[in-house]
Every structure is written in structure tokens, then in C-alpha cells.
Design brief:
The protein is of the alpha+beta class and 176 residues long. 28% of the residues lie in helices and 27% in strands. The chain contains four helices and eight strands.
């Protein structure tokens, strides 16, 4: 568990299943993803998250509002399950319910998780990626001190799909 001024970042709980599904089935939240998730796809995602934890000892964390205990979204630190020219790697990412947008929560949560990745996991580098038009995520990457590296075609998105082309950002550990 990690704490920030406004968030508690913790492993997913069974009580997160419904708000996670509500977030993952919201077309606004999923605008930069190929599709909204069905309940079955949402449940499968939870299974993949749990398996990632079991294998690696880290993974996506629920972002809970400290003052209210509400599930706001999640912040991820995980090993992508696809091959690309920059893998293997550890990716940082975020997804928040629309009610929590434009409050700096993604940056706050990702900054804490990035610090954990570098300080506790001793990672040498963390990457992030998003589609070109996902300006909110690109701004978070830049606020985290990540720099644009290159464009690539996401191997999990079908050829010809409008979301196939992604931008890769990187940040190296600030170790002396």
C-alpha cells in the first residue's frame, strides 16, 4: 500500500469489482482503448492483475480517495504481456473514472508508483505509452518527467485500427 496526500494505492479488493466495471464500461473512460469492457472481460482483467501480482510481486493498484474511501480508478506498474522492440520492460499507466478527471490524481498516483518502482523495485527504467490523441495521458507522462522516445504499432491492436499507432515515453532512474 502506498499513500499520497489524496490517495491510497492498494491491491484490488472484491468490493472494487463493480466500480471497476462501471469505469471500464464507460465510453468516455475507454475512448482511447479499442472497446469498453464487458463484465466478463472486466473479470478476466482482474484475474490477469492477480496473476501478475503472484508472478512478480507488484502490479496495478486501486486508487482510493483517502477522505472518502471511494474507488477512483487504478494506477499500474506492470510488465506488458506483448512483445515489441522495447520489451521486456515495466510500464506505468493509469485509468480513472470520469468523475475524478482533471484533479491531478493520475499524476499524484503515478508519481508515487514511479518512486516505488525506482526506489523499492530498483528498476532502471519505466516506460509508458498512449495513442497520439490521448493528450491527458501524454500530459501526465510529461509531468512525471518522461520523454518521448518513438512511435510504434501496438501489437495487440489489429492492423488498420485507428488506435494501433502509439507513442512511447521513457524515464530512467535518477540514481547517482
Amino acid at each position: 500500500m502506498l499513500k499520497t496526500p489524496r490517495l491510497i494505492l492498494r491491491p484490488l479488493r472484491e468490493s472494487d469489482r463493480e466500480p471497476l466495471y462501471a469505469m471500464n464500461s464507460d465510453p468516455r473512460v475507454m475512448e482511447h482503448f479499442p472497446a469498453c469492457l464487458t463484465r466478463e472481460e472486466n473479470d478476466a482483467m482482474i484475474g490477469r492483475i492477480q496473476a501478475h501480482y503472484a508472478r512478480n510481486g507488484f502490479g496495478p493498484l486501486a486508487a482510493e480517495i483517502r477522505d472518502t474511501g471511494e474507488f477512483a480508478g487504478f494506477v499500474i506498474l506492470m510488465i506488458p504481456a506483448f512483445e515489441a522492440h522495447f520489451t521486456p520492460c515495466v510500464e506505468i499507466g493509469w485509468r480513472f473514472a470520469a468523475a475524478y478527471w482533471n484533479q491531478g490524481l493520475a499524476t499524484e498516483g503515478a508519481r508515487a508508483l514511479m518512486r516505488f518502482g525506482f526506489d523499492e523495485l530498483k528498476l532502471d527504467e519505466i516506460v509508458s505509452f498512449a495513442v497520439r490523441d490521448n493528450w491527458p495521458s501524454r500530459r501526465v507522462m510529461e509531468k512525471l518527467g518522461m520523454t518521448f522516445d518513438c512511435e510504434f504499432d501496438h501489437p495487440r491492436i489489429p492492423e488498420g485500427h485507428r488506435l494501433r499507432r502509439h507513442l512511447l515515453y521513457r524515464k530512467a532512474a535518477d540514481r547517482v
